[in-house]
Please model this.
Amino acid sequence: MYFVILGKNRELSLKELEYAQVEQIEYVQNQKILTFAHCDEAKLADLAGIIKWGKLIDGDLDQVFSASPEKRILGVADKNQGINLKKQYGLKRFKQVDLLHTDLEVKMKGIELVRIGGKWAQVLGYQNIRLYEVIDFEKPGRSMQMGMMPAKLTHTLLNIGLSYLKEQDKTLIYDPFVGSGTTGFLANYFGYDFLGGDLKLTFAQKNIDRWLNSKWAKPDLIFKFFVQDATQALVQKELFNQQVPLIITEGWLGPVIKQSTTAEEVKEYQRWVKNVYVQWIEQMAKAFLDLPVMVFTVPWYLGYENYLEQEILKTAKEVGFEAESLQELYKREQHKVGRKIMILRKPH
Model:
């Protein structure tokens, strides 16, 4: 029996779980912990929206500690349980670890146990926070003015998109608003060919050499940026080699919202953003041999009336897509613009 601990964006995490093909889900402890009987374990280990995952332990804990005798540090949430287990199994020490947090020392050198429904479970995997840090903060070409999509969110969208694809030999990821290259770096790390377009490639080009020379890269895969106005027809269609790509992106978020921004200005900004997205979706509907799966974000103006989501859903359906959006917003404290997740695909 497997378990996962969900991140704070619950609906987004549940949507991503479809990629791991989980079956027979049950909820535990205020619906923050899920248990399930079956999944694709390799895909489960690649999820971005869960904090931890692992397996429930059948029998006593002897098998756990004997299997990893070199790991003498125990991570556990309850102090008294930690004291008792340390003494019982002769461990070097224990650390209290909150369910919703990752202790790096325990992750690297110890064993973390979680109590679920009266049984012990062992944590076997964690979010790849270091990968996200490298992509978000260590690339030379980055600017907060770009409204960069966080790597963790990008990875989540990538997995959601992959869950809609049939198993095939080659998957091509395309980001038509490539920005600083975040989608490309994640696609490359997880073993997918990548194409990225944008009006300007200043930041992306600054970052690509550093990435391809890093330990994270897979340099043998296709990884290419090209100049492209997303609202216009593809100018280098031959790059796609007749493949229908999986599109993962964050388009234009519009002008920066300030404390002094009025409701009328936000309404006008939404009109500008809508025009970009509508033209882009219309182009994608006719660019390839078939309708692509598209997973992307649109801005949601916190504290203002929003109509952008409905306009985009309307356009998508008019050009032949089956379209949906998640109700949950992806937002951060003190930000004035959140993100709405949208999914377009070929109708069943």
Remarks:
- The domain at 129-345 is CATH 3.40.50.150 (Rossmann fold).
- The chain has a mean pLDDT of 94.
- The two ends are 32 Å apart (CA to CA).
- The chain has two domains: 2-126, 129-345.
